[in-house]
Specification:
By secondary structure, the chain is mainly alpha-helical. Helices cover about 65% and strands about 5% of the residues. The chain binds protoporphyrin IX containing FE (2 copies).
Length: about 180
């Protein structure tokens, strides 16, 4: 039977679905950020790719909370490495988690304190305020930069998983998440 929870030799179905499902959603989110950055205003492709940025960003935020909670519940019996490489992997994964939370959170906080209001999948979440709360806007100024930092970290993470573990060391790290 398919194992739902994690085991020391392999991640369970829930972790693998969250990992690969969110990886696909992050690819779409970075594509929309790229369109916002690279294409001119009024461009149809930019409009189409940007139209889902807020809803998908909020969905990723909710999913990372779920994933973090599931990771904590499985902490004692997850795959782990010892030594310096193990510590580097833990630090890298923690940095990914921190940015996956903070990047959307600062924009959600800005929406809560802003004058435009905020809806998620058509459901009103925050009403428009008459005056904005200045600090909520200030923290969101770093949203884009932190988002690109997350993209860089993801590229590094993929390089380590595929090039280092699979091609150089031929170990089972990739297959336990596959
Ligand atoms: C994990 C989720 C998210 C990621 C990875 C992400 C990533 C990014 C990136 C890389 C940019 C910069 C685009 C550029 O350089 O032009 C950006 C811009 C933007 N994002 Fe997100 N985003 C996420 C979630 C959200 C959410 C939840 C909201 C709204 C509540 C949002 C609203 C915006 C807005 C308004 C901009 C344009 C202004 C700015 O650069 O701050 N994003 N996003
Ligand atoms: C082609 C894309 C990807 C590949 C090949 C890949 C590969 C892997 C592998 C092999 C592991 C297990 C590492 C170990 O046990 O030490 C892992 C774990 C992890 N990956 Fe990825 N990954 C990809 C995309 C992503 C993306 C887009 C993110 C986040 C934005 C991400 C975040 C994580 C995190 C946080 C972990 C730790 C386990 C967990 O809590 O889920 N990965 N990845």
């Amino acid at each position: 039977m398919t194992q739902l929870t994690d085991r020391p030799d392999r991640y369970g179905l829930v972790t693998r679905m969250l990992h690969w499902g969110m990886a696909a959603l992050f690819a779409a989110q970075f594509l929309s950020a790229w369109a916002h950055w690279a294409l001119p205003r009024g461009n149809d492709l930019r409009g189409m790719l940007w139209s889902y940025h807020t809803d998908l960003g909020m969905t990723l935020f909710l999913l990372v909370l779920l994933r973090g909670a599931w990771g904590l519940a499985n902490m004692r019996h997850r795959p782990s490495e010892t030594g310096l490489a193990g510590q580097a992997a833990v630090a890298g994964h923690l940095a990914l988690y921190a940015l996956m939370v903070v990047v959307p959170l600062v924009r959600i906080v800005a929406a809560a304190g802003g004058t435009r209001g905020f809806s998620y999948l058509g459901m009103p979440i925050f009403a428009a305020r008459e005056t904005e709360i200045a600090w909520t806007q200030a923290v969101a100024e770093w949203h884009g930069e932190m988002g690109w930092l997350l993209a860089l970290l993801v590229l590094g993470h993929i390089a380590v998983a595929v090039l280092w573990h699979r091609v150089v060391r031929h170990d089972d790290v990739l297959s336990r998440m596959a």
